Amino acid sequence: MRRILTLILLFIALGNYSQVNVFLIGRTTGEKVIANGDTIRVYGFAPNLGTHPPIPGPLIEANQGDSVIIDFWNVSQLHRHTIHLHGLDVDQQNDGVPMLSFDVDHMEHGWYRFKAPHAGTYLYHCHVGSTLHLQAGMYGPIIIRPSDGSNTTWDGGYAFDTETMLFMSEIDTFWHSDSILDHDHDTLAMHDSLEVPVYNPDFFLVNGLSD
Length: 211
Prior knowledge:
mainly beta, four-stranded mixed sheet, globular
């Protein structure tokens, strides 16, 4: 009887949480049409092989306490990549900084596993050659919602009636030329050491829409 009661209590405790499975594909041959009609090359995270990686990448959503598993498949023509969970309090192995955890080579899978921590709004990005790969388009939003399901910023936080995600970023189109994107760089360096031109953004994006 005691064992049955223990199992029932365990089931109730786990019932409020779920497992969130995310599948992302790393790409370096994507294209994006910007406001002036030009098409530029981008890197990014795509949900499947049939589409160009969106800028920003797909939204990752979970509730606080959920178990999240990200299956990252790198299909990027010999470039290494990671997924750094920027701002999330996860263990070092799943943090996505290559020299402290792991990186994912071409045509390999890497799995990131974590229990969704504090509710809030965060982002993920590649931490290999961060200066270049981030500008190239390898970033996306993360939303962790309160465990009680309330429309609040976090458990016991500010209440809201409506929700709109505004992800703001910018592009220097010169940085999206093949000569820059294909520049050799040390993917395991503690700090970026590649030489890049002066950064002069000429398009500003809101949820990927440029102006």
